[in-house]
Write a structure and sequence with these properties.
84 residues, alpha+beta, two-stranded parallel ribbon, 2 strands
Length: 84
């Protein structure tokens, strides 16, 4: 899907967002590092919204983006919307 986005949408995308649901659910840290690097380098001009159910992986992704000067923000739907 990322390759299709790069090919068909390209840099002229007016929306400028990339939404991905649970991309790292079954990945180890080596593949997760590769995905984060790909997102950071190839889609750096887009707002990237990732969904994950694992706080440890969320923190790792945020760390990797912040380490390279990218802005990252965490939003916990359960806490923020439902107040659990």
């Amino acid at each position: 899907m990322l390759a299709m986005n790069k090919l068909y949408v390209g840099e002229d995308d007016q929306l400028g967002a990339l939404l991905i649901y649970a991309p790292v659910q079954t990945m180890d840290y080596i593949n997760m590092e590769s995905l984060v690097g790909l997102l950071r380098n190839e889609f750096g001009n887009k707002q990237i919204i990732l969904s994950t159910h694992e706080i440890e992986k969320e923190n790792y992704i945020l760390y990797k983006f912040l380490k390279y000067g990218k802005i990252g923000q965490s939003f916990n739907v359960k806490d923020e919307i439902y107040g659990y």
